[in-house]
Amino acid sequence: MKNKINIFFLLLIVVSCKEDVNKGDTDIEVNTKTSVSHKSKDNLNISFLLDLSDRISPEKYPNSTMEYYRRDIAYIKSVSEAFDMHLRGKKVRAINDKMQLYFDPEPSNQNINTISNSLKYSLDKKNVTLSVLDDIKESYASKPQKIYDLAIADNKYVGSDTWRFFKSKVNDYCIEENYRNILVVLTDGYIYHKNTKIKEDNLTTYLTPSFIREVKLNNKNWESKIEDQQFGFIPAVHDLSNLEILVLGINPDNKNPYEEDLIKKYWSDWFDAMKVRHYQIKTSALPSNLDKIIKNFILNN
């Protein structure tokens, strides 16, 4: 009799487990090491802001080790791979993630705009499949190359209105409630656009090598001068506490040994003034050296 009771309870357990498996979610890719809590912070909303100014010109700024625009392309690929890893570790019903790419101003070349529009993805349980994930991965591995090739071939570098993007668009384009919002800025660290040149005392909307020389921030006393005379960027908005920013590609003028630290000081003070939740600012380096840093930023914060 005791054996029959044990067998009966064993059958109940097996049936119950089978029902739980049928009712449960499936992983997009089996990942037994990944434990994902279903919280809004697990929903990624990743935006790229590309600076397509003459900084990407291989003719004006050649680099025999690896052209700067090719570094951008590889950085974008690293971010997209992190996005892919994030998605493949989630249950289907938990997926609610986005990735998109922006410029400011938008290029006049309509082909570039068409490609950038094709890189906007919004995923949820209704539209996500393995083939969609493969398509995103392939698109971000190949299409950015086409954007840079077209921009370089056009040879019409209109500058990048980075300050105006933060002023007028970052809240609308890059920040959503119930998401972990991440903005990846690809820039050499200098900001200038002819239509956005504002100066308030020693605060500006721009930073260029010539300006740095003009105000004599190119010597060993640069930091104390910034602090004492309050040099920096004009805050574009008041509260970006729901945004994380990863700046990649800082490329200082090598004629000034203090320029790299000065550029990072300008950007970090700017982000602090705008209450950016979390940020990192990285100098241009070979993509193989930055790949781990990029993926850790996306996946581990």
Automatic annotation (TrEMBL):
Annotated PROSITE patterns: PROKAR_LIPOPROTEIN
Highest taxon in the source lineage: Bacteria
Stated name of the protein: VWFA domain-containing protein
